[in-house]
Design a protein that fits this description.
The structure is a homodimer.
Chain A: H1 6-22, H2 29-36, H3 40-44, H4 50-75, H5 79-87, H6 104-112, H7 117-143, H8 153-174, H9 178-193
Helix pairs in contact in A: 1-2, 1-4, 4-5, 4-7, 5-7, 6-7, 7-8, 8-9
Amino acid sequence: MDKKDAVREKIITHALHLINTKGIGQTTIQNIMESASLPKGAIYRRFENKELIVLAAFERAGYIIWEHMVQAVAQAPSTIEKLLAISAIYQDAVHNPPIPGGCPMLNTAIESDGTFPELQKLAAEGYTNTVKFVQSLIEEGMEKKELRPDVRAYSLASFLVSSMEGAIMASRLTASNEHVHFNMDYTRALLQSFAYSDPN
Amino acid sequence: MDKKDAVREKIITHALHLINTKGIGQTTIQNIMESASLPKGAIYRRFENKELIVLAAFERAGYIIWEHMVQAVAQAPSTIEKLLAISAIYQDAVHNPPIPGGCPMLNTAIESDGTFPELQKLAAEGYTNTVKFVQSLIEEGMEKKELRPDVRAYSLASFLVSSMEGAIMASRLTASNEHVHFNMDYTRALLQSFAYSDPN
């Protein structure tokens, strides 16, 4: 395609919002039609069924979160600050997450488990890619001698990403950002314990 | 009631299994009837609607997980081992979690968010009670001089519980227990850094 299909983009935007706030099971094509103010035909000409809309919405979510991560990292002056900046993307998980409804990877992971294998596969790839991105930052920090050479980059990356996801769940569940902030505090302490030489 | 209603118990058992593996949205009263081999009347005489079954199933899940935690803690010889034993409840999150389908609190937290306030409230209470239980173990460890006196018991408890939940999500999503094991490794290192005096 030469130019973007604006209607397709609009369908995906509204579908993502609905799916991430209400869940896949609670979102119907009728809901998407109403939210986007589009006739049924406009949707069915572009997507054969709801599953295809859901997959496209998840892909869109991936781009949005990726943008947030790249920006967070670009502005941070050191490896440890880069890693903390990623955690900080969800510092207001309750009221202002990057996408309304919380983390789409977390929500999708839970909702697709055992029910939607193709989507679960996409979400698993999203998790693995996030871990690999964080791993590459850690390895860069080790090369730059900001982090100790005995750090295990892959397992640390997995721990940072999964613990952040758990904290987002806890904060959204209890409507209190304190859990995300506790996660940031312990993550900072953990990373500082891995610093090559304390800058203080 | 003097004696337990065995049919009610059976309905809850089958409902919990279905809900925790397929999700609330994908579980119908028809599914529960078929799974439990019970006629519709047997269910409706005990539960007015699906929501009440879901709430009862979540309560049952809470008892089951609670039992696992109490047992894990009872067998462990020290505070740090008690805390690690709680993490180990989900060491085979992929193939053999305490309840098929993963952690019911995590699953419920995500699925009830924005759609089922009464259930979300129950799940939030479940999270808070788990954190308080872990906090009480930490405080006991501080009193016994197994943990350092400057440990912040509440925030550490929250971090331990939320990071464990995130690791369960990651392991179930990717069908690999490595993420849960990484969580246990970093948790052990963190707790050892808080040990009052190293026993080695």
